Structures are given as structure tokens and as C-alpha cells.
Amino acid sequence: MTVNIGFIGVGGMAEAHIGKLLQIDHAHIAAVHDINRERCAEMADKYGAAAYDSAERLIASGTIDALFVCTPPFARGDIEEQAARKGVHLLVEKPVGLDMNEVRRKERAIRDGGIINTSGYCLRYMDIVFKAKSYLADKQIDLVMSYRFGGMPDVRWWRMMEMSGGQLVEQSTHQLDLIRYLAGEFKDVQAIHEQRSLRKIDPEATAYDVGTVSFTLRSGAIGNITSTCLANYVGRGGIEFFGSDFYLSIDGADLRIVDDGQDMTIKSSTDFYLEQDKAFVEAVRTGRQELLLGDYAEAARTLAVTLAANESAASRQPVALPDDEEEGAAC
């Protein structure tokens, strides 16, 4: 079975996915839409896809089996719900939204539609993350330290809090998602976000440029995640896990494990974007949701933590996360 794939939003992230899909058996780029008509036509011509002048027409065309949603988070509308109603399978890039009520509504529609679904948390597909998850399965994690330092994307919407959600929602969400994946759910967060130099670049910017979040996990472990988008001379992202009988870190593509019997470092050999897209295509082709390392609902839980941190930064107060039962009731 060939999986005919559509794209809504064909910027750099979409083209990165397309490059991987071209390497995958059974994947065919069938249709594209972007509000930038020139870009849409260029991508359609480059990859032999049909260009559509609206998301609605692409989804209703009957020409696609699966859809990659690669628009910025403020520009999603009801794309996911339309796709779910049509039985079109979904990979929705992170973050999956900026408003939890809207995201929960989409989550229900996706679940009710019975479609294969996932999100863009690609780091879960790294071989070293698989090794880390296996190692940590029987460990008591006591402290988690995480960071994401780098430059700022050259798109204005990213600097606007109401359009991007800020760096934690947009970038450091990858590290935060791995904390959830490897160490369990968050109990509460307390954040400080500040503007230090961003207004020199854009006087009207509303996002922060430095931020730190302290948190407690439901396991009892505590931790911190610190971010800046103004680190123009260094870029790195990682997580460190500390226990009384071990240390484990994921620093970019390197996994280090230290305990009484070893001190080893393993470098990832995985193209995690390719592995994620292969898993999605195969899940759609075979109808096996279990091939994917996270669904839309998982992405919604990660988003909830990042939005709670934004709420905490605004109020200067800690914010508690709902437990699984409360989340289930909300859905």
C-alpha cells in the first residue's frame, strides 16, 4: 500500500520531513497547501504534488491518506478536526497548540475519529533515548537538570508570546517531553521568565529571552529546566538524571551512564527524523498505532506542562498540574 501524504504548511520544517519521506518505501508526497501561494506552488512543482488553495480543499480532496500539519501553533484552526472527520491520519508538529481547551477538543475529535495520530516529538526516536529508558526503568530518579541554549529563529511570530508561547513551548519542549518520557509526569511547576536583550532586536517583542522552571515530578523527584534563545555563540540541549546509585545524561547525541560498574558514553547513530517518519508511514500503512512512541494526547500533556510554566511565570506563583484522572475527566 502506498501512503499518499499531504502537507499543510510547507516551510522549513515541512521540507525537512519531505526529505525524509522521499527515502521511505510506500510514502508518496501527494498534496500541499500553504498560505504563501508562491511557496506552495514552488513546493508542489519541486516534489510533484498537487497544490491546493485552502486546507479545507486539500483535506476534502480524497487524494491523501495522511497529513502532516506543519503550520505555526497560532495558525492551526480546526485542521485536525477536519482531518479526523475525514479519516485522514495525522502527524501534528509540536507544539500542538497554545490553548488547552482547544487542544483537548482536538484530542477528543482525533480519538473519536479512530485515526492513526502522533506529534513531532522526534527525540523519542533516538537510539540513545531507547537505551536510557531501558536503563532508568528500575531506577529511583531524585534530581533532573535540563537546558536548551541557542539562537532565535528568524521569524517574527516566534518573538510574540501570543503567537509562539515562548521558547519553552516552542523549543525546550523537546527536553521537557523527554523528561516526561523518561522520568514520569509533572506534579507542579514554578517559573521565572524575563526579557533581557530581546527588545534591542525587536522593541515590540512580547516573548521572554531567558527562563527557568523548577518542578516536582509525581515520583517525588525535583528538577529544573533553563532556556535562552540569545545564546548566539553556543548551542546545546540536554538532560541529566541523578540518583543515589547512578548518573545518566543525554547531551545532544551523547548518552553517558555512570554507576558502580561502568562509566560509558554512547553516541547516537540514529537519524531520528527519518525514524519518526518511517514509524508514522508504517503505522498508517498497517493500522498499528502502537508503532509510534507517542500520540496526540501525549503531546497535549507535554503542552500542558509548558503552558502551566507560562502561567506560573506570569503570576509568580507555583502552578499544579492535573493528575491523570482529572485529565481524563476533562477529555
Summarize this structure briefly:
Helix content is 37%, strand content 26%. The chain has 331 residues and is an alpha/beta fold.
What does this structure look like?
The chain is α/β, with parallel strands linked by helices and 331 residues long. It has two domains: 3-121 and 274-293, NAD(P)-binding Rossmann-like Domain (Rossmann fold, 3-Layer(aba) Sandwich); 123-270 and 304-330, Dihydrodipicolinate Reductase, domain 2, CATH 3.30.360.10. 37% of the residues lie in helices and 26% in strands. The protein is built from 13 helices and 15 strands. Strands 14-13-12-11-7-10-9-8-15 form a nine-stranded mixed β-sheet. The chain has a six-stranded parallel β-sheet with strand order 3-2-1-4-5-6, sandwiched between helices. Helix 4 (79-86) packs parallel to helix 5 and helix 5 (100-113) runs antiparallel to helix 12. The model has no long low-confidence stretch (mean pLDDT 96). One of its GO terms (molecular function) is nucleotide binding. This is Gfo/Idh/MocA family oxidoreductase.
